[in-house]
Amino acid sequence: MTQPTKGLTAPHPFGQEINQQQLIETFNQCRQWEDRYRQLILLAKKLPALSDNLKQQDIEISGCENRVWLGYQLMPNGYLHFYGDSEGRIVKGLLAVILTAVEGKTPKQVSETNLLALFHQLGLEQQLSGSRLNGVKSLIHTVQNAAEHYTKD
Prior knowledge:
single chain, 153 residues, mainly alpha, Sufe protein. Chain: A, two-stranded antiparallel ribbon, 6 helices, 2 strands, globular
């Protein structure tokens, strides 16, 4: 399912050209944490930087080691578009994993997505430090809140 990119605040390849199944296959080939670490850095490089005017305080996420921004918009077709950035490469890669799983889905589909299970399936959850895992949980919480905001209507 391809979503139109016209009207997107900040387009990126996640959830479209890079999908969840591809991520799973890629990370399943990684035998060591260093390989997963490299994959996260590669994902981070594919996520375009947000322009400074989009890095607003209202979308900055607290609870992360690095500064991170995560915004969203409901598209006219009823699908959610998420966008974000981080000053840290690993955090930006973790954000890219989340975007892959939720981009271009309806609020209901996003609400039903178990993002922590995806991190476990990719072999990432058990490798993250406590503070970094808390940051990931803050990002997941923001995504879930966005979905809930639009499913209440």
